[in-house]
Amino acid sequence: MQLRKVTAASAAVLALALTATACGSGDKDDAAGSGGGEKITIGIKIDQPGLGLKTPDGKFAGFDVDVATYIAKELGYDAKNINFVETKSADRETAIERGDVKFIAATYSINDERQQKVDFAGPYLLAHQDVLVRADDDSIKSPEDLNDKKLCSVTGSTSAKNVKEKLAPKAQLQNYGGYSECLTGLENEAVDALTTDDSILAGYAAQEAHKGKFKLAGFKMTNENYGIGLKKGDADLKKKIDAALTKMVSDGSWEKAVEANFGPANYKYEPAPKVGNIVK
User: Fold this and answer.
1) Which of 42, 67, 175, 264 ranks highest by number of CB atoms within 10 Å?
2) What's the first-to-final CA gap in the chain, in angstroms?
């Protein structure tokens, strides 16, 4: 009888200890988005210079990173508590739906198809689809010149599809896993052009190793409204992020981030869009 009493008491103590440990854990994402020292996981790109890039020292840099960091701060998270993770174009909706990330800032254009699966705050940048070609290639002077050309884009992106369906039906699409791979293919003449948003292309063209090798065609084929992707139906988080973006513009932080990340490329960026204003 005495042994059973001791065992029961020990079990109670152990249960209390486990409960205290669980309550005291600070490494888990804060699902409510209220901060309080908890960790927050944010999806970004890690191979897009000027927007989202993982540097050799393991840090992250770029305009999207600056926007995400500003938003996280407004939500109550210190920079040291942000966990940035790579979200490839084809995986963004899945990452949000599964709850792998709190939100995504990764050159994520707002469109009707995506809004069936996720919600968007913003927009926070208006970009345009363009084409990057080799600096010595004068054969592509209009979107129609992409017919019979090898056109590279990234799996999950809508850019190449837009060109083939609307502008150059005979373009030979080449889907690669990342923009860096497309750029290597362009340099090696395995492809003739790389298409995506001008902001992304400008970031690549401005890299020290690529200066003088490529040029933007300047076609402005579409309007790309970059938004912050988040779980569908999370109206409270959307409202908070919209407020953070509005504040980022009004206090000058948006302009500062744009100049810091795109200035070296002489990228002719559009003025900061008004939250909720989607340019068609």
Assistant:
1) 67
2) 78
